[in-house]
Amino acid sequence: MVTAVTNLGRSGLYDWLLQRVTGVILLLWFLCVGASIVLYPDMTYAQWHGMFEGTAMRVFSTAAVLSLASHAWIGLWCVLTDYLTPRLLGARAGLLRGIASAACGITLFTYVVWGLEILWG
Fold it and tell me: What is the average pLDDT across 88-101?
């Protein structure tokens, strides 16, 4: 049974809804960037840089970076709690799940900081 400690107090409905909202944000961001690539195939670096220089695109890209991190965190948490179980791994499952969760959390945090530095630095 999953306890409030392992899911950080979230509910399944909250996770489901957050996955859907972040998925829509990511879809819209990819469609926006993809449309720019298709509509302007000869885009130079200066034009590409100019597109991401605007505040609206920076805010939209920041929302996409944060959405990607939260989407990935929930997905990875689900996978880790489904497959790193005592039934499959025995008594060391909790320790392995904790280590894997920490590694995923550190990696995602690094990617968010890196993304924000690229966008706003």
Answer: 90
